[in-house]
Description:
The protein is mostly helical. It is 78% helix and 0% strand.
Amino acid sequence: xxxxxxxxxxxxxxxxxxxxxxxxxxxxxxxxxxxxxxxxxxxxxxxxxxxxxxxxxxxxxxxxxxxxxxxxxxxxxxxxxxxxxxxxxxxxxxxxxxxxxxxxxxxxxxxxxxxxxxxxxxxxxxxxxxxxxxxxxxxxxxxxxxxxxxxxxxxxxxxxxxxxxxxxxxxxxxxxxxxxxxxxxxxxxxxxxxxxxxxxxxxxxxxxxxxxxxxxxxxxxxxxxxxxxxxxxxxxxxxxxxxxxxxxxxxxxxxxxxxxxxxxxxxxxxxxxxxxxxxxxxxxxxxxxxxxxxxxxxxxxxxxxxxxxxxxxxxxxxxxxxxxxxxxxxxxxxxxxxxxxxxxxxxxxxxxxxxxxxxxxxxxxxxxxxxxxxxxxxxxxxxxxxxxxxxxxxxxxxxxxxxxxxxxxx
Length: 410
């Protein structure tokens, strides 16, 4: 219902704004621009789904091998004390547990291509426990919000964008993005926990949170001591090494337990191909709505309105150039990436605006994309509190990004 309102709202607002701009003569070609945006965005949606096909086929096949070999069961059992408190009522050895663990780990390491197949697998497994098909369960709500918040330890893709734009130190956004994305995850978890009335003061939950914070903090402190030129290389090497280690672990366990890894892989790969085809309508639909809204001039008006509301806070005027990235991030990851590159091109990669755009880009995932992708893959029609909780997580991440930009780069 929420996605339906957002989708229709984008089209209707674009229609009103486009008509006004044409009637007043502000942009006589606005209708042509909006029409072209529908075709361009539809093509983009299809191309994204097409690029996902190979990745989904590969990773769902590999996860099928890991599941058959027992690797996923071992991971979920190790984290079962935490998962039981974040997802109360979920069976400790349910296949969804392992898939969620892999999804969170991939997001943490910046392995976007590995995170999506694991997330889709988790949603499908959680759906097997759904007493009301078509309506998101509490577990699915929590999972989608946490995934949309997307804690990021290694923002490799953003560092690569900064390097391509000529930044003196592409890795200078490393620690700020970690803090900003942590704010997003914390906000999203608290929002869902309050809605679902979870027990927040559970000693085991608190022990896990403190322990993870200590481990991550120590690791970040060690990496931060490296020469700036080595941070990106170390992050990339560590992430890819862990990914390959996971694959080899799956295959080694399969060999040890005498599982026919090839047959199991092919079976899982077929599921990945079908999943890629099923998400095309959802991607095309949301991306076209966003593209038409941008073409109508709606995004420019929203940016000006926000600045009028926040100018009194003392934020530097240079913040305005990063607002488009912030506004687009929940709607379209590729569009937000393009706006980030544009900000670095116009204002400079080492400017306050350029760096703030990067922090906003890395502070959270693409909320509407995640919800549309995951709910569409299993046919959910009612996502309940997912959208408001995920948007609150975005807000927390954005506030964290602004705070870190003011602290590090002002």
